[in-house]
């Protein structure tokens, strides 16, 4: 709708970037539901450092209470003066708890946590952009960040203060607190998630009683992410925390932890936005395997189960993770999974997407993996040979073909005799596969014929049926349920062609239809 | 491995035709290739048929139960198949054989598989006799409900309501207990599942238990710590409200609902707003008139809470979802409330919402204007309407712009031509050069509707000059818009304007340097042909089309030839008409008429009559319709009905 620019004259279309710039960027507010009426104007209190030490405690409390006032940051000119006072006060509070000793007396704990809860706990707003793609789009930033940042900073300093006593704080920093904190990890603002990560880490470290609870809730968040919403912005941050938590697990691993690995971390690989947290996820998985190598087999089988079928980008990530695992695998474990694993690798090598093929072929540059392959060449080579041989002739990408030649050469050097055998039997093998394919076709054809002939059988035998079906006086039968009934009675008649069975079937049909809706 | 498959296959290939060894079939179900496994599972009924009911029960089902570990896609197919397996295992008396594999499927992680398994279980539960239901099915539900991992407990939530009505009262009490337990489960996933089935379960419960059990569960779920659970409870509210007698609603349901309307999470408030009209309807049905009034007052106070009128209370833009959902329902309320209440209670809200910063809210109000118009008339709103419309017309989201365009004809009709010319005309013209095609297209269509409303003379003075002016625009997309407008407007503007003003512009554009414009010229000429007089068609249009037919561009050539052959066919049909009805004066004179739209009508109606007569003649010669009876010179509307009548007769004929 603006004036036509030079670029438009060329092809008639406006540049996307220009149109995007036209959109007025609206900053996102928090969804803090304002039950309170308009904010009262704040008046500055005296500086803490100027107050006599007897009054400092009282002043500290007053300042904390003052900071419970919330402001509307969507309107950037509203309450400017009060906003500035709150900002300065928060700054002063941060400074106060980080530099002074002996300020955290027991009576301040409720005031402190109240101030924190009031400011940071809120239902996160819906995303500005309904089809927000974390990989592509700019995140919406929290409008009230100038205040919230300082509150987070304050919380962190509070937790890190040498006088901080978890035994007192646990009355306030409890399960409910942690739960609300975890929900904030969904924030679109990466700055906020970063603070939350450090804070949760501190809480996990200091509150032993909350550890199991935190792990369980993270579990729930992940499960909801995987199976319900497929949306949660803080997966990477939570995984990062877990990475260090796993590191500290005692051996032998508890069943709970193994379950977390198999039922949560492995299914996390199915997420659409895997790219956003894959590095952290792979780190967690490898941590587990370094703790307990016997988990290697189930983990690799799990990855193979969820192997991407259409998303090449994810396939490359999976291959990367497999290589990380192979880097730490024990030779005995390798033997257990080599067959299914190399069947998958052989498929990847033959992938028409050259990045996938290339990533898989790079395994042969890894000394440790090479040594494992060499040790088991009699198992690995027959699995890999077919794909490599075919690809060396067929792949469209010259780089891949060159890589395949190198791999073939390496494999040949490992076991020359086996390689020659496979080369000479390659054609016969293909023939055998084709024949097997034909046999399968024939089998199914015969089965289908059987089905048809039994259908014919029913038609011949069905004179007894109509009256039975007439008993079925449900007129609301729709077509599909009719068809099902017919099919089922047909099957019944074919399988057990005794007459006394047929009425049963009819009765069943009439019994079942009313409920079929 | 492949060698085993090889051996396994052979007996099947050479062996006994009638008896397929289960090993072969199972080999297929075990094939390495997922796609082949999937195919085999999808043909599971064929396999079962081949095996017979006995072996299906004793061999196939145990195998399926044991090898549940597979790709989710295969499991999904399996879960679906088993729901239709009753006859293949020997009918209802054996249906419980299907429970073990479905039970395992109901515990897998993947939601779609689990849901499908639950669906199949619900289906076959109906095929169980009451005894089997208690002996086999209900224990399964209990096992699922007390499973270790959350998946089985979520699945259990969907199974209570299907067995509850058909079991003894002791078992009923147990089921209620299990449901209660799951409603306060440790994991939010299970509580969500329970909350989502709350309404369904309430429906099968006895009224006393609805009051004692369901209400307390509803209240508890509606104040859950997770907003995802609370909002599902709100959803259940609709069905619970329909079950309760009116006198209990106020005390049992309303407090929770009111609390949900004030929830601190926007998701919950959104759900309340979204379910607003549904709940309202269910409340309204079950309440007598007096109660309606009191409920309304409550709703209205909630409404004010959710869409604050005063500046000071304006909720921040983040609950725009809530507000826009409400905006779409409160307009509907005006019809229920009547004129006085609407003016008193709702008008201030409409006006406030028209000023809302969120475009969806404003749009929802404007798009529901017709409801209000019926009750209080649009004039009340017009002053507030205009700024809202202008702003929406320039909104950055093209869908918003599109929506407002669609309401233009309605608004124009209600506001009148003067108001329109003064305030809205520029907007309508600006849309023609929007950068989104859908907007330009809608703008074109909008112009057509406006011309239909305000007449050709208005078009000639206000729209046509501007549209034709765009033919000289340096942007070819805008030049094409001129052509699209002409296509749309020619009929509404009539022969005179089309021939004298539009045609020269179109013809001139046939020399455009952009091929897209040239082939659209060919298309336009084809479109406006019927409106032009024959003279112009022969002397001006034909030569241009012939020139375009020799264009260097393939597409231009194609569309030019299309247009030429279309014109020729029409010509022939007109002559044919005169030939078929030589005695008919009207017909012949029309065939020679210069007005091409009349000619075309003649052709169509003649063909239709022809078709009808030949059909009727076959069945009942006495009813043959004579052409002039049917024929009226101005046949815009009847032509359609004629055609459909003719085709209907033809259809009946074929059926006989």
From TrEMBL, chain A:
<dbReference type="GO" id="GO:0000159">
    <property type="term" value="C:protein phosphatase type 2A complex"/>
</dbReference>
<feature type="compositionally biased region" description="Basic residues">
    <location>
        <begin position="16"/>
        <end position="26"/>
    </location>
</feature>
<dbReference type="GO" id="GO:0007165">
    <property type="term" value="P:signal transduction"/>
</dbReference>
<dbReference type="InterPro" id="IPR002554">
    <property type="entry name" value="PP2A_B56"/>
</dbReference>
<dbReference type="GO" id="GO:0072542">
    <property type="term" value="F:protein phosphatase activator activity"/>
</dbReference>
<feature type="region of interest" description="Disordered">
    <location>
        <begin position="462"/>
        <end position="517"/>
    </location>
</feature>
<dbReference type="InterPro" id="IPR016024">
    <property type="entry name" value="ARM-type_fold"/>
</dbReference>
<feature type="compositionally biased region" description="Low complexity">
    <location>
        <begin position="469"/>
        <end position="486"/>
    </location>
</feature>
<comment type="similarity">
    <text>Belongs to the phosphatase 2A regulatory subunit B56 family.</text>
</comment>
<dbReference type="Pfam" id="PF01603">
    <property type="entry name" value="B56"/>
</dbReference>
<protein>
    <recommendedName>
        <fullName>Serine/threonine protein phosphatase 2A regulatory subunit</fullName>
    </recommendedName>
</protein>
<dbReference type="GO" id="GO:0005634">
    <property type="term" value="C:nucleus"/>
</dbReference>
<feature type="region of interest" description="Disordered">
    <location>
        <begin position="1"/>
        <end position="56"/>
    </location>
</feature>
<feature type="compositionally biased region" description="Polar residues">
    <location>
        <begin position="27"/>
        <end position="38"/>
    </location>
</feature>
<dbReference type="GO" id="GO:0005829">
    <property type="term" value="C:cytosol"/>
</dbReference>
<dbReference type="InterPro" id="IPR011989">
    <property type="entry name" value="ARM-like"/>
</dbReference>
Automatic annotation (TrEMBL), chain B:
<feature type="domain" description="Phosphatase 2A Regulatory Subunit A helical">
    <location>
        <begin position="98"/>
        <end position="268"/>
    </location>
</feature>
<dbReference type="InterPro" id="IPR051023">
    <property type="entry name" value="PP2A_Regulatory_Subunit_A"/>
</dbReference>
<dbReference type="GO" id="GO:0005634">
    <property type="term" value="C:nucleus"/>
</dbReference>
<feature type="repeat" description="HEAT">
    <location>
        <begin position="175"/>
        <end position="213"/>
    </location>
</feature>
<dbReference type="Pfam" id="PF22956">
    <property type="entry name" value="VPS15-like_hel"/>
</dbReference>
<dbReference type="Pfam" id="PF02985">
    <property type="entry name" value="HEAT"/>
</dbReference>
<dbReference type="InterPro" id="IPR021133">
    <property type="entry name" value="HEAT_type_2"/>
</dbReference>
<dbReference type="GO" id="GO:0019888">
    <property type="term" value="F:protein phosphatase regulator activity"/>
</dbReference>
<feature type="repeat" description="HEAT">
    <location>
        <begin position="21"/>
        <end position="59"/>
    </location>
</feature>
<dbReference type="InterPro" id="IPR000357">
    <property type="entry name" value="HEAT"/>
</dbReference>
<feature type="repeat" description="HEAT">
    <location>
        <begin position="463"/>
        <end position="501"/>
    </location>
</feature>
<dbReference type="GO" id="GO:0000159">
    <property type="term" value="C:protein phosphatase type 2A complex"/>
</dbReference>
<feature type="repeat" description="HEAT">
    <location>
        <begin position="385"/>
        <end position="423"/>
    </location>
</feature>
<dbReference type="InterPro" id="IPR016024">
    <property type="entry name" value="ARM-type_fold"/>
</dbReference>
<feature type="repeat" description="HEAT">
    <location>
        <begin position="98"/>
        <end position="136"/>
    </location>
</feature>
<keyword id="KW-0677">Repeat</keyword>
<feature type="repeat" description="HEAT">
    <location>
        <begin position="502"/>
        <end position="540"/>
    </location>
</feature>
<dbReference type="GO" id="GO:0005829">
    <property type="term" value="C:cytosol"/>
</dbReference>
<dbReference type="InterPro" id="IPR055231">
    <property type="entry name" value="2AA_helical"/>
</dbReference>
<feature type="repeat" description="HEAT">
    <location>
        <begin position="346"/>
        <end position="384"/>
    </location>
</feature>
<dbReference type="InterPro" id="IPR011989">
    <property type="entry name" value="ARM-like"/>
</dbReference>
<feature type="repeat" description="HEAT">
    <location>
        <begin position="214"/>
        <end position="252"/>
    </location>
</feature>
